[in-house]
Amino acid sequence: MLFFKLGAISFGGPAAHIALIDAEVVRKREWITRQQFLDMLGAANLIPGPTSTEMAINVGFVRAGWAGLCVAGASFIVPAALITGAFAWAYVRYGSLPQAGAVLAGIKPAVIAVIVMAIWRLGKAAIKDLGLALVSGLSLAAFFFGWSAIGILLGGGLVGMVARRASRPGSVAACLPVLSFSSFWRRGSLSFYAVPALAGAAAVAKPSIARIAIFFLKVGAILYGGGYVLLAFLEDGLVRQHVWLTQQQLLDAVAIGQFTPGPVLSTATFIGYILGGVPGAAVATLAIFLPSFFYVALLAPVLFRVRRSVWMSAFLDSVNVCAVALMTGVTFKLAVDALLSWPAWVIAAVALAVLWKWKVNPAWVVLGGGVVGLLLGALRWW
Questions:
Q1: Which residues of the chain are modeled with pLDDT < 50?
Q2: How far apart are the first and last CA of the chain?
């Protein structure tokens, strides 16, 4: 029930989802420790697939074994898939997206406040010494300079591990080799996915259900980098190569994936419905999320045992601070987009104050932001 609820109300993308999961399973229910949560987060960032969904799957395994792994992951995905499917039905039937801009405008600043609080708590637990603080700062700088997320995580983890084990732990000098960014991958390595817009392209005959399944299975198996990279994958495959969708249909699908709660990869549900109706939506959803269950099933049973190794412990510590740094960078970019008016700043400030002073469930803060946004929209204050 917990992850079904989170899947139904977790607006704002992976960073917000992770913040909500942290609030529920670490602070409120104490199912896992904050260190375990950080280790899960670092590991989830290192494997393909949606990070927040893999966090839900991981928590389910820790809480209730293999059955928990399946139930937690499915419960987190199903609400988003059903909501996205409903939007897809309306889109196909009426030819346009339902407008709910005022609600979204209120939700966004509340979500920013939720994420900021989560980063504060995770950062306090992850940054244990000056060396890790330096790794975190360099990772954040690398993010803003355009280095790829997976490169920052792997490079920071490996260099941090070697430096922390080769030198006295806790010294700043131990982490100076991180300055060698040659171990990082540049985002430019994915530049071949950036293709020209083909707004005027027309979709060809719809594909078979099997082809839909195979396409989304491949995307789920190799996807790194979240929603923006997902857009590049889908545009290259669906618009350019197969010509199954027009550019406008793809942008509408991604917009719905961003607007609806739960994983952004529920965009696959929308596209699957356009391409093949209810069966297409079902197989697209199953195919894009299935690899995540497989990856976590391989990793989860050994994750906490790996922590006992002094080398792997140093690696995980470094990856964890890199993950928090990436979360900080993404949040900054989200805030630039969300805080464009004085009502948005007021909502964010009030939400942050409420979360700081009282132990309020962040879900209520997010929903409250949506209600305030709706009211302000009715008053035409946006």
A1: 98, 169-201, 228
A2: 35
**Rounded to 10 degrees, what is the CA torsion of 32, 36, 42, 43?**
-90
Question: What's the token pair of residue 144?
Answer: 């803003």
Cα gap 140→81, rounded to integer Å = 33
Average pLDDT value over all residues in the chain: 79
Sequence-ordered list of residues with C-beta below 8 angstroms from that of 93, at least 6 positions apart, any chain: none
Q: Identity (one letter) of the amino acid at 322?
A: C
- Within 10 A of 349 (CB to CB), how many other CB atoms are there? 13
Query: Which residue matches tokens 């006992």?
Result: 308
Tell me how far apart the alpha carbons of residues 309 and 82 are, in angstroms, rounded to a whole number.
Answer: 42
Q: Which residues contact 183 (CB under 8 A, 6 or more apart)?
A: 151, 154, 155, 158, 159
d(CA 56, CA 69): 8
Let me know: does 261 contact 83? Beta carbons within 8 Å: yes
Half-sphere exposure of 78 (CA within 13 A, CB side): 11
**Beta bridge pairs of residue 186:** 147
For residues 268 and 281, give the distance between their C-alpha atoms in angstroms, rounded to a whole number: 7
Provide the β-strand partners of residue 147.
186
Q: Read out DSSP for 263-286?
A: -GGGHHHHHHHHHHHHHHHHHHHH
Per domain, the residue ranges of the chain are 2-128+292-313+335-378, 189-290
Q: What is the pLDDT of residues 256-311, one digit of tens each?
A: 766 677 887 888 999 999 999 999 999 999 999 999 999 999 988 888 777 777 78
pTM over 0.70: no
